[in-house]
Amino acid sequence: MKWIGRAGLALLAVLLVAFVALATWEPFFAERGTGPASDGTYSAEIIRSDFGVPHIYGETDADVAYGTAIAHSEDDFFTLQDVIAMSRGRYGAIAGEDGAQVDYVYHLLDARGTAEREYPKIPADTRALFEAYAAGLNQYAAEHPGEVKLANLFPVNGTDVAAGFALRQPFFFGLNNVIGPLVAGEPLNPEHGPAIPREDLVAPSDAEPIMQDGDAGTKTASARPLPLHMGEDGAYAGSNAWAIAPSKSAEDGNGPTILVSNSHQPWRGGVAWYELVVESGEGWHYAGANFPGSPFPFLGHNEDLGWTNTVNTPDMVDVYRLEMNEAGTQYRLDGEWRDLESETVTLPVKMGPVVLPIRRTVHRSVHGPVIENDEGFFAIRYGGMGRLGQLDAYYRLNKAQDLEEFRTILARMDIPSTNFLYADKAGNIAYFYNAALPDRPKGFDWRGILPGNTSAAIWDGPVGFDELPQYVNPASGWLFNANNSPFSAAGEGDDLSPDQFAPELGVELKSTNRARRAAKLMEETEIIDRANLERIKYDTAYEREGYVARLFDEIAALDVSDDADLQQAKALLLDWDYTADSVGRGDALALLMIREFMGSSYQNTPWPDVREEMEKAVDHLKTHFGRLDPPMSDLLRLRQGDVDLPLDGGSDTLRASTLWNVDDDGRLSVRHGDSFLMFVEWLDGSRVVSQSIQPYGAATTRPDDPNYASQAALFVRHELKPVYFWRTDILENAVRRKTVSNR
To answer: What is the mean pLDDT of the chain?
Structure first.
């Protein structure tokens, strides 16, 4: 029997070796990263306000970018590492299966190859920012080894940071709406979804994109979400933005130019806003916010001008069915067989204490990335594919000084998507529907699946910037966007008409409740001064149109005579005042009900059963509150650590509380909605002033930091804090001040 014991020990040894191998292989397989090619030396001063917002100063722009990385790492190194892992194709080693799906897309889109090809073409001064930013990340990692999640993740260089941009940007205009169904092997319908003129279809997330069903006959199919976790989870909704001219902001026509940035992003994670102010001796002076992994702000203002963004959803993606040989190794194009480019990649998938190596094959054709499923091989081509000019464009926008310069930079079409709302000290306001829309040749049904066997269907480059919808100084004196069609932006008489633009462009025609409310309130308000603009921004009402009208029509027709609780719920809903202000008795019930139907419209998924959803809402309120009409503020909460505060607003209201977690006590802990909010004003003869707010604070992943949730109380009260754009102001209000350097 001794041999049995020896065999058992041998098996145990083999298992132990296998366990050790699975627990340790990934960092060695990935290999250690490399730092910036140049031995740059940097120094920056970081001054923090009473709310912890970093004001970063340096002699050069590169010094400031280095300081930005240090400051952000001090506040949220946890999330920065996730973003860097994504840019290295190693997120699965941190986030398991969901992270591995991000890594699959990283390889499918050739994010690394794009960065390696395009990054060297970026102007040297812009590359200097990225190298300095990488140096700051490396320094923080070296000085805080106990915080590093993944071995051999650092050092990184500018190409690594650039690869993160190449990976994430396409998902802001909904590339996943095509990738998701194709990867899932679900049949594609014959036409695109985004360009369908459906009035109750609202926008996908500014943040983490979600799968959408197509309307009947649309190209995109029903699909499970592909969890591209750039933030903490998939999200709906988008952003609001306003620009008001001096002629409209005061009775005498000489008011300030006002810009409002009202982004809706996840409150944590890789696309959560991080507020900062930057200033250098080379003329870079900007206040705003960026995402983890960026050396510069993406929105905000400088001394002369400012802008903000909202997600738009044009038709920027085309799908081609490839004609393959029997072996699946070649595709036919223009009568000739071409080799399909194929590469087998290893995806790390963390499972408990081990990381499994999962092998997957990714393909490419001359069209773009190729996905194989049971229906065949499908190639994808999308606007901005293979380009990284946005790295330089955002930097130039930060330093632009007037409308002409700003528009010239946008006209390069380097930023693939997102609307830009603009304002400046000269009193100009503008709205640019920015999108690298494919310059598609005539003769094909671009809303359907395209033939992959002819190069005539392969477009190259975007349409001209002048072909896109845009407004400059409309007579109304105001502009807005709430992820809606660009044909409702400036009011009756000033709005552009869709008839002015070719339908082949694929410009969306949809609206949102937020857009309907904004347009109505702006039209009704004679003078849109600061007080009126704040009233509009914090509006919590729904218009009885679109999905809201459909929902309440079905509620009115619902037979609930067999259930007393449902009868009470129906009465509360039919008596509801269509506001999510936590005043009416039906607000909590309506909040629970509306989100599911808004979600159906956002995701274009099947319409929920009204009775079933009402039963769920009734059960939730009865279980956790013992009544159907608790104050909505008891239900909807802002929670961060020990902070637990009431919230207002709903899904798709201008005051947005869009997504939430359901906590054990039945309260709804909001995780997505109003996020970075900034009011900017230029008054003739005065310096620019601005105020801002965020839901939590500067250090969202540092529970022991005093700014873990320091802005929360102001946020729930609809209050703002000063930005301290000018150095004299921050010095008077500084709480912490330090110099960082690698010299």
So the answer is: 90
Q: Which residues pair with 160 in a beta bridge?
A: none
Helices vs strands, H then E, count in the chain: 19, 27
pLDDT of residue 190: 40
| Distance (Å, whole) CA 503 – CA 494 | 21
Nearest CA among 506, 274, 495, 469 for reference residue 382: 506
d(CA 109, CA 88): 13
CA 412 to chain centre: 22
Whose CA is closest to 590, among 649, 509, 508? 649
Q: Output the pTM of the full model.
A: 0.91
C-beta separation of 437 from 417 below 8 A? no
Q: How many CA atoms does the CB half-sphere of 173 hold within 13 Å?
A: 27
What are the residues whose beta carbons fall under 8 Å from the beta carbon of 673, sequence distance 6 or more? 237, 264, 267, 649, 656, 657, 658, 659, 695
Q: How far apart are CA 269 and CA 249, in angstroms?
A: 36
Kindly report which listed range (27-36, 48-57, 272-281, 660-669) carries the lowest average pLDDT score.
Answer: 27-36
Question: pLDDT value at position 208?
Answer: 31
pLDDT above 60: residue 226:
no
Q: 281-333 pLDDT, tens per residue?
A: 999 999 999 999 999 999 999 999 999 999 998 889 999 999 999 999 999 99
Distance from C-alpha of 579 to C-alpha of 588, rounded to nearest angstrom: 10
> How far is residue 658's CA from residue 210's CA, in Å, rounded to a whole number?
14
Task: Answer whether 592's CB lies under 8 Å from 618's CB.
Answer: no
